Amino acid sequence: MGRWRGALTVGVAVAAALVLGAILLAATGANPLEAAGAIVTGAFGPDGIQDTLAYAVPVAGMATALAIPLRAGLVNLGGEGQLVLGAISAVAVGLHVPGPLGLVAALVAGMLAGGLYAAAAALCETRLGVPLLVTTLLLSYPAMSLAAYLVRFPMRDQGSSLPQSAQLPPDVRLPALAGNGLTVGLFLIVAAVAVYAVVDARTPAGFEARVTGWGPRFAQYAGIDRPRTTLRLLACSGGLAGLVGAIVVLGFPYRFIDGALITPQYTWIGLLAALLAAASPLGTLVAALFFAALTSGGFAMERETQVPRELTAVLQAVLIIFLAATTGLLRRRRSAA
Questions:
Q1: Number of neighbours of residue 308 by Cβ within 10 angstroms
Q2: The pLDDT of residue 5
Q3: Which pairs with CB-CB distance under 8 Å and at least 24 residues apart come from 12-18?
Q4: What is the rounded distance in angstroms from the CA atom of residue 209 to the CA atom of residue 213?
Q5: Residue 242 phi, psi dihedral angles, 5° rounding
Q6: What single-letter DSSP state applies at residue 177?
Q7: Using an 8 Å Cβ cutoff, are 207 and 24 in contact?
Q8: Which pLDDT score is estimated for 139?
Q9: What would be the CATH architecture of the domain defined by 29-307?
């Protein structure tokens, strides 16, 4: 019954957001049906499906990474820092460790860098009493600044004037599945989602996370160690974020470029997906694909209808607002009943 209620909540929110989006499109003088068709064709047509999948891989990875602590009511706002730190660590290792071992070492280095950095934020809350929202968010800035410094000075590509690292050697690159940047990293993200789903549904750790999300005080009375749970979930979240960063830089253009991981907003769109799906493993994946398609299709809509693609970002924000409003309305009705 709870699953059907959650699906109803999301369905109502999506429908309301789409109606408002159609009104906004009509207000700009565009045909809503034509614009919607351009989004669908641009996202899933023969020329767009590969771009959508390439964009969906980091979005789905970050959505899953942020959903892991969100399941316990913990919000990790430091995804960008963990993503960037994992990416720069992967490049640093990949440039110095040759062969297939270098590829594996780069992926592991990205996971460790992101996981340890997120664990530091968790310790600030559990040991020092600094709220997790503050520590995760503020620790992102030193990580991004460190990465920017590294690619501007010690790791800079001497043959380029851009703030970027040297290219990784050919044997330290993820095999490509398509010419648009899609790599076998797709399978790593799918595997991560599958592991999250199994742990969430079939293990004591997943049950503890869900109970903590239902009510921290109830979880404490039930004997769940909240500091340990916080540390474990943040480490897993940061580790997956670091892995996503490593996957991105181990694909085309096979280097770390300052700002390239921040501009596409993988983290914030991933957070929207996790919020929309209430951190459900499968729901988070579906929501991430939805937002990736919406973003990818927005470029096609702009080309064909002259409607700014920024409207898709407005639609994403409106969707979350409607979801929050719908959730509160349904809860109020259940309380009245």
A1: 13
A2: 59
A3: 12/322, 12/326, 13/276, 13/319, 13/322, 13/323, 13/325, 13/326, 13/327, 14/319, 14/322, 16/322, 16/326, 17/315, 17/318, 17/319, 17/322, 18/315
A4: 6
A5: -65, -35
A6: S
A7: no
A8: 95
A9: Orthogonal Bundle (1.10)
For the stretch 2-8, contacts whose Cβ atoms lie closer than 8 Å and that sit 24 or more positions apart, written own/partner, are 5/330, 6/278, 6/280, 8/330
pLDDT at 190 over 60: yes
Q: Is 175 exposed, middle or buried (0-12, 13-18, 19+ CB in 10 A)?
A: exposed
230: left (phi over 0), alpha (psi -120 to 50) or beta: alpha
Four-point Cα dihedral 296, 299, 300, 302, nearest 10 = 150
Residue whose token pair is 């800035």: 141
3-state secondary structure of 176: strand
Q: Where are the domains of the chain?
A: 1-28+312-337, 29-307
Handedness of CA 258, 260, 261, 265 (dihedral sign): positive
**Residue 291 reports pLDDT greater than 50:** yes
pTM for this model (two decimals): 0.90
Q: How high is the pLDDT of residue 179?
A: 67
Question: What pLDDT digit, counting tens, does each position of 81-103 carry?
Answer: 999 999 999 999 999 998 889 99
